[in-house]
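By way of example, we now present a protein record of this kind:
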Amino acid sequence: MSDTMQVAENLVYKKPKTLLDVAMHYCPGCGHSTTHKILCEVIDELNIQSEVVGVAPVGCSVIAYNYLDIDMQEAPHGRASAVATGIKRVLPEKLVFSYQGDGDLAAIGTGETLHTCNRGENILIIFINNGIYGMTGGQMAPTTLENMKSTTTPFGRDVKKMGYPIKMTELVAHLPGTYYVTRQSVHTPANVRKTKAAIKKGFEYQRLNKGTCFIEVVSNCPSNWKMTPIDSNKWLVENMLPFYPLGDIKVPSKEEN
């Protein structure tokens, strides 16, 4: 066996070419970095670097454009799906996605999100849900679980005063404009593979011009949850996933494909 063949055979990791070789600002153990990696792997494997346009709003995702070697556009807080809509309508041949956190998409951006999905805009929305405002100090988000502590709910979220956590993915799945809706995670290798497959489908379905694809990624936030990365993944499994169960919620029929 040649040296080249041996190297290829033993290769367990290769940085995607569309993932820039720069230090990331994400905290150790954060799911954003893993999601960036598999997003870039999909872009490489589909060979769509020149076709794809991403939109990142305010939040921990705000400087995703520092890491992804693709065309990126920053959007005001909560307006990523609106900006993505404009880009897609002006450049319909492009593959457009937004990359948003829960504080952005499910709070200030709730209206934009619901109306984008209801209109069936032909874009992909990638929604990172860690149940908290990550960038601004760990405040309660619309997705914060009941009794979950945050900097603004130090004794836990009281649903009588603060309302219930919102399940955006189930909400948009009911809208006629959505084509593919799923909830995944990146806390284990097996789940990383499933999320990567979902992102790939999201781009492939966009070519069909059938409506909005929506992928929620349930993630951790070790720093604001005040846990180690390992403990935060355990907490995610024990607390986040029972409320935000993983799996496809709305999938195209075989006839539609």
User: Anything to note?
Assistant: Strands lie at 52-56, 71-74, 95-101, 124-129, 178-185, 212-218, 247-250. The two ends are 42 Å apart (CA to CA). Residues 144 and 162 are 10 Å apart (CA to CA). The mean pLDDT is 93.
